[in-house]
TrEMBL record:
Belongs to the universal ribosomal protein uS9 family. Residues 114-135 are annotated as: Disordered. It comes from the Bacteria. GO terms for molecular function: RNA binding; structural constituent of ribosome. Keywords: Ribonucleoprotein, Ribosomal protein. One of its GO terms (biological process) is translation. This is Small ribosomal subunit protein uS9.
Length: 135
């Protein structure tokens, strides 16, 4: 078990789209979530869906009493929330390997491979072509 007084924590890195989150999980905390130096509620503007995404691993395991600090870069708010969830699940598994089966079943340990498709030459967007005119 880690000792928070000494600064011990469990680490997990998560990725989603172009966002990368480095998550530190401190046991024996008051349940605070800090993202880039701000409270998660302030950072994500109070969007409940994003806050629910972040705390999903805790709800899956029925856990509380952990402090979380996150450094996240890249992407938008939705991608960042997904990256935090991925990193938090990895940190929980590092803390207790017995959590791995539940995290895997919920799909939190799998990196979501979906990315934005690149624009192709000759097209307006990735797949949108100019309108065809017969005459």
């Amino acid at each position: 078990m880690a000792d928070t007084n000494r600064g011990d924590y469990y680490y997990g890195m998560g990725r989603r789209k172009t966002a990368v989150a480095r998550v530190r999980l401190f046991p024996n905390g008051d349940g605070s979530v800090t993202v880039n130096g701000k409270a998660a509620n302030d950072y994500f503007g109070g969007r409940d869906a994003l806050l629910a995404t972040i705390t999903a691993p805790f709800r899956e395991l029925n856990l509380d009493g952990y402090n979380i600090t996150v450094r996240v870069v890249g992407g938008g708010t939705s991608g960042q929330a997904g990256a935090i969830r991925h990193g938090l699940a990895r940190a929980l598994v590092r803390m207790n390997p017995d959590f791995k089966a539940a995290m895997r079943k919920a799909g939190f340990l799998t990196r979501d491979p979906r990315m934005k498709e690149r624009k192709k030459p000759g097209l307006k967007r990735a797949r949108k072509a100019a309108q065809y005119t017969k005459r």
